[in-house]
Amino acid sequence: MTTEPVPVEGSSDVRMRGFARRHTLTDALNWLDDQLAPLASQAVGLDVAVGRVLGQDIHSEVAVPGFARSMMDGFAVRAADTQGASAYNRLELTIVGRAGPAEAFSGQVGPGQAVRIATGAPMPEGADAVLPVEQVEADQEHLAAQGEVSPGKHVGQPGEDVAAGTVVFERGRRLRPQDLGVLSSIGVSQVQAVRQPQVRLLVTGNELLPAGSMPSGYRISDANGPMLGGLVARDGGLVHNPGIIADKQELILAALRDDADVVLVSGGSSVGPEDHVPVLLARHGELAIHGVAMRPSSPAGMGRLDNRLVFLLPGNPVSCLCAYDFFAGRAIRVLGGRSADWPYRMIYCPLARKLVSVVGRVDYARVVIRDGRAEPLAISGASILSSTTRSDGFVVVSADSEGHPVGAEVKVYLYD
């Protein structure tokens, strides 16, 4: 099946005529993947770098630690001077100085000598081990060693954490909090990170009230806006949602042209009289995909307007979630340098009851996990958003399958 754009002239107005055909999920994803590549990198300070994706390898110019250091509070000694020491055979050493963090002992430790040392302090010249304070009785000038240590004991060696010249992190790594600590330790104050995609939410519908409003009369509160905002943030995008757009072509077209990398259109994506977006996208840009052989989300669409990707997400909340997961979320993750794969944990478990599907259509079926078995929810309507909050995850039934019998092991993608 091809994925040619809908013609502009004559037949570009698809409203009230139904879908001429529905693209396969494979064709839709193939078109999408051809459009995707990570965005350019930008300099980012460590204070805002957590969760960002590296746009280049990070090499360390220094060794960490850059010097031999004590890993214990105690006394820097020559290991040979402690051999045979025990609680019953105390060996006396002379204390000749001290070393603290960033404060080195200026002399050299000779036979029978020790230097009082703190954790992290540089090892004195001549000493090769640290005798822990717990194994010592000491006054100001002398100590009695009550245990023995081997060469290198309780000493951190130069470069044992990070060796100079090594690649610390590779391009494409998503930075974690502990990664920032390592970067700071090698003197890196900012990194080149893939730019986060700018995502414009375009929520349409004259029946909609602002998110969080109390439903009134025949009007309903916007549920898709908050849901999509959370999904975009999860996938590394920066969300811009100025509010609901009235079902007027000039307002919708202006919003489609907002400065963004991706536009997510919630509602107005199908073939009804108020579904303006497919017509506008076909007329002013490219409507590459409109209608996909899947349930829910069959009215989903994709295309381009100028330099931005546009995703037509159905207004029904479950369809909107499904279309986002399959298409828009994939794009946002890849643009931001992340993996295209779903950010869901997967488990395998048997079905508690039969899961029915239709050959030629991909099904997105919500399930509940009970006693280690996946039970499909009885309610499958695309407008029942609470079905996704009552479910633990979903099962994808491929287009070449009629479903799965009771007891069949299925792959479940967990929402958590």
Span from first to last CA?
35 Å
Question: What is the helical fraction, as a range of percent?
Answer: 10-25%
| CATH superfamily (homologous) name of the largest domain | MoaB/Mog-like domain
CATH uppermost class of the largest domain: Alpha Beta
Number of self-contained structural domains? 4
How do the helices and strands line up, and which of them pair or pack?
Layout: H1 25-35, E1 41-45, E2 58-59, E3 69-70, E4 74-77, E5 91-99, E6 113-117, E7 129-132, E8 136-138, E9 142-145, E10 155-156, E11 167-169, H2 177-185, E12 190-194, E13 198-204, E14 208-209, E15 220-221, H3 224-234, E16 238-240, E17 244-245, H4 249-256, E18 262-266, H5 277-284, E19 286-290, E20 294-295, E21 301-305, E22 308-313, H6 317-335, E23 345-350, E24 355-356, E25 362-370, E26 373-376, H7 386-390, E27 393-397, E28 403-404, E29 409-414
Parallel strand pairs: 5-6, 13-16, 13-17, 13-18, 14-15, 18-22, 20-25
Antiparallel strand pairs: 1-12, 2-11, 3-10, 4-6, 4-7, 5-9, 8-9, 19-21, 21-22, 23-29, 24-28, 25-26, 25-27, 27-29
Helix pairs in contact: 3-6
Compact overview of the structure:
With 416 residues, this protein is α/β, with parallel strands linked by helices. The protein has helices at residues 25-35, 177-185, 224-234, 249-256, 277-284, 317-335, 386-390; strands at 41-45, 58-59, 69-70, 74-77, 91-99, 113-117, 129-132, 136-138, 142-145, 155-156, 167-169, 190-194, 198-204, 208-209, 220-221, 238-240, 244-245, 262-266, 286-290, 294-295, 301-305, 308-313, 345-350, 355-356, 362-370, 373-376, 393-397, 403-404, 409-414. The chain folds into four domains: 25-39 and 196-335, Molybdenum Cofactor Biosythetic Enzyme, Chain A; 41-61 and 169-194, Molybdopterin biosynthesis moea protein, domain 2, CATH 3.90.105.10; 69-156, Beta Complex (Molybdopterin biosynthesis moeA protein, domain 3), CATH 2.170.190.11; 345-414, Beta-clip, CATH 2.40.340.
